[in-house]
Automatic annotation (TrEMBL):
The keyword Transcription applies. This is Helix-turn-helix domain-containing protein. SUPFAM superfamilies: Homeodomain-like (SSF46689), Regulatory protein AraC (SSF51215). InterPro entries: AraC-bd, AraC_XylS_family_regulators, Homeodomain-like_sf, HTH-like, HTH_AraC, Tscrpt_reg_AraC-type_HTH. It comes from Poseidonibacter ostreae. SMART domains: HTH_ARAC. PROSITE patterns: HTH_ARAC_FAMILY_2. The keyword Cell wall biogenesis/degradation does not apply. Keywords: DNA-binding, Transcription, Transcription regulation. Residues 161-258 form the HTH araC/xylS-type domain. It comes from the Bacteria. It holds the Pfam family AraC_binding. One of its GO terms (molecular function) is sequence-specific DNA binding.
Length: 263
């Protein structure tokens, strides 16, 4: 596998009818719809992903959705991958952010299709990497709407950033609302109001999401499901499994059996 794609999750799913609760990723989500439809929404808009459309979510964007006979491929490139490629193109180390959600671009669709096809067929590394760079550079050159300096994805949202760092320093802690509010010098009322307004999730949903993202990475890297769930603060494995499926659309055992590819 190309070094660019180490620890990158791929999904290749046929006829999904799953619903996805509000969640976010600390990576990009880039995918293609081949059949069916995904009705998705976030704080700003709702949209539908039909046949031959390209879907994009930027890191930290809260989104949810309902699928119907949805056949699609996804992958989750890291901020580091996208920033490095942007720097190679423009000689400026910045992180690109893209037009939200649906991009109608037949050339981009074709380039991404060639990349996914070569990856799933386990072609030569040089071909996979060439197709990856060809597709992502087209995306960056044609669909970037703004950039940020390379830093934390929540850098422009101080309360979110401080809370994110505080939670990640001790992910397995049972946080109280008072503890989280005190960490950013706010009352519980103002912390709740500003947090949900700035991010689109409640603090509780944010903590669950962050724990699940961390557990997802642990399972991809060979940890057992029980070990991953305990390490991120779930004492009840059935509770962990229910939340995992609600957020990602598949169970942790399904991820474990298919390594880093969801089939």
């Amino acid at each position: 596998m190309s070094k660019l794609l180490l620890n990158t999750l791929f999904e290749n799913v046929r006829y999904s009818t799953a619903d996805f609760t509000k969640h976010y990723h600390d990576t990009y989500t880039i995918g293609l719809t081949y059949n069916g439809v995904l009705k998705s929404y976030n704080s700003y808009e709702s949209y539908e992903s039909y046949e031959y459309s390209v879907r994009i979510n930027n890191p930290g964007e809260v989104h949810a959705g309902k699928s119907k006979e949805w056949s699609h491929v996804n992958f989750y490139p890291t901020v580091e991958v996208m920033t490095n490629l942007y720097e190679q193109i423009f000689h400026d180390r910045k992180t690109p952010f893209f037009k939200r959600h649906i991009i109608e671009d037949k050339i981009l669709f074709t380039k991404l299709h060639h990349f996914f096809d070569s990856y799933f067929k386990n072609e030569d590394e040089i071909l996979i990497e060439s197709n990856l760079i060809d597709a992502l550079s087209h995306l960056i050159l044609n669909s970037t709407i703004y950039t940020k300096k390379y830093n934390d994805i929540f850098e422009d949202k101080k309360i979110i950033k401080n809370t994110y760092e505080f939670i990640n320093d001790s992910i397995d802690t049972n946080f109280t609302l008072e503890t989280l509010a005190s960490n950013v010098n706010l009352s519980k009322f103002h912390f709740l109001r500003l947090f949900k307004k700035d991010f689109g999730l409640t603090p509780h949903a944010f903590i669950i999401n962050e724990r699940l993202n961390r557990a997802n990475n642990l399972i991809q890297n060979g940890h057992s499901i029980s070990s991953a769930s305990v390490q991120v603060g779930f004492n009840d494995q059935s509770h962990f499994t229910r939340n995992f499926k609600k957020y990602f659309g598949y169970t942790p055992s399904y991820l474990q059996k298919n390594s880093n590819i969801i089939l």
